[in-house]
Amino acid sequence: MEIIGDRKYVEIPGQRVHELPPLLLRDARGVGDLHNVVGRAELMVENDALIADGRLDDHDRIGLAINLAEQYSLFLSHWAWGESILEWIRQCETTFESKPSLKPLLSPDVWPHAGRKSFVTLLEDKSVPRGDVDLENAMGYRLTFRQPPPIQFFSDKFLFFLRSSLAANAYQTWADASGDDPASLPPERFRFFVTGTEIKEV
């Protein structure tokens, strides 16, 4: 076990750079019909009790609907990343199992074992381009929701529930389940492609 700063890294025999499966990024538009999302958001705003009292004009209603649609789209982007990462980790497990030098690094526990947190850390260490997506929140949303809830569930109360660190807590619970902090995978020993709108090697 190699320790650099406050991080522990597993030791991998030899100097070979190992090829991992590509990270195939799922299109957030594929997990929900976003074509009419603003229209549906407008209907939700109009059906709100406060709106029914006539307290907001058309401009305010449209503004609220756009804000709701943007928050829903951001949630979908995070969830799609989490789904993509889970599938990538499953493929990496298969790769590790097939390589004698890598197989001992994985514990045999049933998926999703918390020791797999090291793969999320590897993505962060490799500086995978992800825009506004926070990888830990992405994993937290995916661990919480097997499928993304439709926009109809995105009431003010539900949005507050999501914003109150639900994703971070879900990820941390999963990451801490093994009882200790798993050692990190040395980023210089692994290489893989990230595919989505473009293909990038990291």
Q: Which percent band covers the strand fraction? A: 5-15%
Q: What composes the largest sheet?
A: 3 strands, mixed
- Report how far the terminal alpha carbons are from each other: 24 Å
Radius of gyration: 20 Å
- The largest sheet has its strands arranged as 4-6-7
How many helices in DSSP terms?
7
Structural shape: elongated
SS elements, strand count: 7
Helix and strand content put the structural class at: mainly alpha
Helix content: 40-55%
Mean pLDDT: 79
Which H/E pattern describes the elements?
A: EEEEHHHHHHHEEE
List the uncertain runs: none
Number of domains: 1
Give a written overview of the molecule.
The protein is mainly alpha-helical and about 200 residues long. It has one domain. The protein contains 7 helices and 7 strands; from the N terminus they run E-E-E-E-H-H-H-H-H-H-H-E-E-E. A hairpin with a 3-residue loop joins strand 6 (about 195) and strand 7 (about 200). The longest helix is centred in the middle third of the chain and has 41 residues, at about 60-100.
Quickly describe the structure.
This protein is 47% helix and 9% strand. The chain has 7 helices and 7 strands.
Salient structural properties:
mainly alpha; 7 helices; two-stranded antiparallel sheet; 3-stranded mixed beta sheet; 202 residues
